[in-house]
Amino acid sequence: MARKIIIDTDPGQDDALAILLALASPELDVLGIVAVAGNVPLPLTQHNSLKIAELAGKPQTKVFAGASKPLVRPLVTAEEVHGRTGLDGPDLPEPVMKLHKQHGVDFIIETLLHEAAGTVTLCVLGPLTNIALALNKAPEIASRIQEIVLMGGGFFEGGNITPTAEFNFYVDPEAAKVVYASGVPIVMMPLDVTHKALTTAKRIEAFRSLGNKVGDACVAMLEFFERFDEEKYGTDGGPLHDPNVIAYLLKPELYSGRHCNVEIETASELCLGMSVIDWWGVTKRPKNAIVMRDVDHEGFFTLLTERIATL
Ligand code: RIB
Ligand code: CA
């Protein structure tokens, strides 16, 4: 029986590869994709979600629009990383498939109430706004979510949009706080993992050698996406963040970490959005997330490339 998932996302080139990996994997049943404002505004993230589903050759995928702004703060975007469209790099055709009319937050709630309890995993690749809105609107869904697997936060690696905060948590720290206080089982892929998964030239060539439309689009996306971080970190390739969420579902053995308490800073302007991870257990705060710290990055890229080859 395929694992049922909902992908909540702000595409974003790295989101795109995560969505492609999920749609290429028969172990997963993608019940829907819900766009959120993040890397670029919602009109673009919803449009990009449609483009990616069609690129994967899965036009029957249900795509919804979610929140257009964070819970209480103005939206912060990242065009400097992802380009004006959020999906700069490849020249993808305009989508034929249409958005579903239902609001994405209502789709999340309705799906969780309809499906058997504990059988739907939320894969969160952007700011946590939609998830927090769903939990606030229908608290009864918390006990019905199998797991939340998310890309966000950082600790030993610090932050990427401020010295202490990772982008997804920084954009909507109040939403992240709601999710980490919800009691839902969380698996977290922080920058400490994703900064070990670099899109090196050799790995880009592996996508190019696939010789298929999707592989070529991945090359164009990654070559655009990585330039910002290559310059920033001085590395061969940039960190590939979001596909780690999907790869964990497919091959959890690629990752290692520990159960910790994680709290989100929402008051300090200096450290806003920081994920305060009690890695050494120095507080008695309840452990509320499995925090991953290491990844078999060769295995990760092998999995990703093998699956993209099937599209
Ligand atoms: O900090 C990296 C995260 O922020 C990734 O999910 C990227 O797509 C952006 O949303
Ligand atoms: Ca993202």
Automatic annotation (TrEMBL):
Q: Which GO terms describe its molecular function?
A: purine nucleosidase activity
Top-level taxonomic group: Bacteria
Which of UniProt's keywords are assigned here?
Glycosidase, Hydrolase
Inosine/uridine-preferring nucleoside hydrolase domain mapped to chain residues: 5-301
Q: Supply one GO CC term from the record.
A: cytosol
Which SUPFAM superfamilies does the entry mention?
Nucleoside hydrolase
**What EC number(s) is this enzyme filed under?**
3.2.2.1
User: A Pfam family name for this chain?
Assistant: IU_nuc_hydro
| Leading EC class | hydrolase
- Residue ranges annotated as transmembrane are none
What GO biological process term is on the record, naming one?
Answer: purine nucleoside catabolic process
Name used for this protein in its record: Purine nucleosidase
